[in-house]
Design a protein that fits this description.
The protein is α+β, with helices and mostly antiparallel strands. It has two domains: 184 residues, no CATH class; 201 residues, no CATH class. Helix content is 55%, strand content 18%. The strands form two sheets. A six-stranded mixed beta barrel has the order 2-3-10-5-7-6. A hairpin with a 2-residue loop joins β2 and β3. About 3% of the residues have low confidence.
């Protein structure tokens, strides 16, 4: 028989018992959908992580307080050990052999209010004038903090997009007065939008002069120090130099120097492990579906024993019987995988609609992998039933009741 004839005969055989075939296809469909969705979700996570690290700024390394081997920049400053001071940032600027741009930062959470409106859990960041340049985070309205604001400890504030929306709606916030920890601050600017990372809103921040933040929160410590290096190839040596400079006044447990590349590599490694783990779990579910195919094909061989005996008596060879049953199991798995692919697109649409900030895009590579794997599973688990059918003795098969 030609391949088209084989497919036609296989579809007719499967259609003869629609309920059984549908239930068997369901197992393969779920397995294929799981592979595609889980791999696509893990890829989306990897894209978001990469975007977050890259959005910190280019050619960047950061000095974190305490020993934080696996810290993300966005979570910096949460160490219980915090001996970083402004003097350390000044040493990096003055003693480095590179033309560094150093931006010390102090972070703390507080409630920010405007009139009767209040926004809780806002990240208050004490910053210096070069913060937008180092972080590649421009101001879209007004201006950022000036050096005179630092020197005079002025109560001025630059707000993030989420704070602007929560407190001002569509109104112009420039010149308005915000309250932070009981003190009033004049809004002088609005930062550009950075978006969300899962449920973390990176725009729910306000920026005040570093000197003002340290006075208000009663701390002379820094949460972290961002450092921009002019040339990307100089970052490894600049990181090593920073470690040497800071080690002269700080202990090894007092600080951690992390480059942007190191953080990205670490997060991508974690994402890759997540992808492998999720893909393996999904693969197991598809293998379970393959076992279902094998069971149903064995039942089919038993039910069609007399048919097999008749075909052999009429001259059908063993390999033709084997190919016929093998094609049935393969077609069954392909049909199940096709349904699973359709379901995965529907699932991705549902997830993206449910979580607008986390867009799941079905990766073509995941679809191809699921389709090939399901075909391989269907063929593998169809071998034994097909071989069993081809090995039947025609006389004994015709006697079967």
């Amino acid at each position: 028989m030609t391949p088209f004839e084989l497919v036609h005969v296989s579809l007719e055989a499967l259609a003869s018992n629609k309920l059984r075939s549908t239930l068997t296809m369901l197992g393969v469909s779920i397995g294929s959908m799981a592979i595609i969705l889980l791999l696509s979700i893990s890829m989306a996570v990897n894209r978001q992580i990469t975007g977050v690290v890259e959005s910190l700024g280019s050619n960047l390394y950061v000095v974190l307080s305490g020993r934080q081997e696996h810290s993300e920049f966005a979570q910096a400053g949460l160490s219980t050990v915090n001996n970083l001071k402004l003097s350390h940032a000044e040493k990096l600027q003055k003693q480095s052999g590179y033309r560094l741009t150093v931006s010390p930062v102090f972070n703390s959470a507080a409630t920010v209010s405007y009139g009767k409106l209040a926004s809780n859990g806002v990240w208050v960041t004490g910053a210096t004038p070069n913060f937008p340049q180092v972080r590649n985070w421009p101001v879209t309205q007004g201006t950022f903090i000036r050096q005179s604001d630092i020197d005079l400890m002025r109560r001025v504030v630059v707000i993030g997009k989420s704070v602007e929306t929560a407190l001002f709606g569509g109104k112009d916030p420039l010149g308005k007065q915000l309250a932070i920890l009981g003190e009033r601050y004049q809004v002088i600017g609005v930062m550009g939008a950075k978006g969300q990372l899962f449920d973390i809103d990176r725009d729910n921040q306000v920026y005040i002069p570093l000197s003002t933040a340290q006075r208000v929160f009663g701390s002379t410590a820094l949460s972290l120090i961002f450092v921009h290096v002019p040339e990307a190839e100089d970052i490894p040596s600049a990181v090593e130099e920073a470690t040497q400079i800071l080690s002269r006044s700080l202990g090894p447990e007092d600080f951690t120097v992390k480059s942007q590349g190191e953080t990205l590599d670490a997060m991508q490694t974690i994402a890759s492990i997540l992808t492998i783990m999720l893909g393996s779990i999904a693969g197991i579910s598809l293998v379970v579906g393959g076992i279902g195919i094998m069971n149903i094909m064995i039942v089919s061989v038993v039910e069609r024993t007399r048919e097999i005996g008749l075909r052999k008596a009429l001259g059908a060879r063993d390999w033709e019987i084997l190919v016929q049953f093998l094609s049935e199991s393969t077609v069954l798995s392909i049909l199940g995988s096709t349904v699973g692919i359709t379901l995965s697109y529907l699932g991705a649409t549902f997830i993206s609609h449910l979580y607008p900030t986390f867009s799941v895009v079905i990766a073509p590579s995941a679809v191809l992998l699921a389709l090939l794997f399901s075909m391989a599973v269907g063929t593998f688990f169809g071998v034994y039933p097909a071989f069993k059918a081809s090995a039947l003795d025609p006389i004994e098969a015709l006697r079967h009741k």
